[in-house]
Design brief:
The structure is a single chain. Strands 6, 8, 9, 10, 11, 19 and 20 form a seven-stranded mixed beta sheet that branches. Strands 14-13-12-15-16-18 form a six-stranded parallel beta sheet, with helices on both faces. Helix 5 packs across helix 6. It is α/β, with parallel strands linked by helices. The protein is globular, with a radius of gyration of 22 Å. The chain has 13 helices and 20 strands.
Amino acid sequence: MLVSGRLTGARARAPLHASLLETWRRRGRTASSYSASSEPSKVRALIYGNHGDPAKVIQLKNLELTAVEGSDVHVRMLAAPVNPSDINMIQGNYGLLPKLPAVGGNEGVGQVVAVGSSVSRLKPGDWVIPASAGLGTWRTEAVFSEETLIGIPKDIPLQSAATLGVNPCTAYRMLVDFEQLQPGDSVIQNASNSGVGQAVIQIASALRLKTINVVRDRPDIQKLTDRLKNLGADYVLTEEELRIPETKNIFKDLPLPRLALNCVGGKSSTELLRHLAPGGTMVTYGGMAKQPVTASVSLLIFKDLRLRGFWLSQWKKNHSSDEFKELILTLCDFIRQGQLTAPACSEVPLQDYQQALEASMKPFVSAKQILTM
C-alpha cells in the first residue's frame, strides 16, 4: 500500500527499502539514501525502480541525506525541467541508462547549502548545474560529489539557469562544430519549436546567421509562427509548405543552407536534405518520428552531402570539464545580452509531477515543463 509517497506496513516496505538503500550505498555520496524512518523526510524525490511509462513508474518518495564530508556538496535544487531525454531514459530507450532505482531528471539548477572540507571550487550560496547526465535532478535536495557539478553565474534568470545545460549547449555546438558558417549564411532545421530549436534560432541570430524553421502544422500555427519570429526566426514553414515548389523562392533572398539540423527523421529529414547546398551537412540529434533518416543516392553522389550525428553526452566525454564550463559561460553571455532566453516554460510544483509528465508527452505542446522545488 502506498500512502503519501511511501509504502506502509513492514512486509510491503522491506523489499523496496532494502533495494533502494543497497543501491545508494553502492553509489557512495553522489546520491541520497532511502529513508528507513517511518517519519516522512523533508527531502523528496521522483524515483523509478524499473523502466516503463513515466506516468506509471515514477513515484514521489521520501529520502534522507548522507552527511557532508570531504568532496561532498549539499545542494538544494531550485528547478529542473522535463526533457525528452528524461522521458526516454525512464522508458529505457536512451543511450545512457543509470542503475535502478534512480532519481529522474538530467538537468536543472540548485544552490549550494554546504560543502565538505576538500571542496575548493564551490561555496555555500553558489548556483550549480549537473556536469553530466544521470545525476537525478528531480528532487528537493541531495549530496553530490564536487566533480559532478558545474558552478554557474547567479545573475541570469532562474528558468534560463534550469534549462542551460542541455538544449542551448546542443544548439551552440551544432551551429559551430560542423560547418564554418559566416554571417549571412543560412541554416535549416525541423522541430523548430523544440527547446533546441528555439535555442538554435536565437544563437544563430546572435551569430548573424539566417534560419529556415520547419514545424508541424497545427491549429494555432500563426501564433507559433509569430512567437518563433519574435525569437529571431527568418522563415517559418510547415512540413507541407517545405514540399511545395514555391519554397524555392526563399532562396532568391538568401543562400542555400550549408547546415541542416534534424530532430525528426523520416520524410522530414529527407526534405531537409533536398534543400541543402552542395557539400552541405545534415546533423541528426533526435528522432521524434521514430523513422530512419532516408537519403537518396543522387543527393549523396551529385551534391556530396554529409550525414552526421550529435549527442551532447558524447561531446562531454570527448572534452574536458573546463571546455564545458567555457561553453556554459559563453551561453551565459548570450543570456545577459538578451540574445538567449529560456524556452516557453510552465512551472509545476514537484508534487504535481504527473501533470508535468503528461504535458511533456503530449503533441503540439511547446511549453517546457519545469519542476519547481
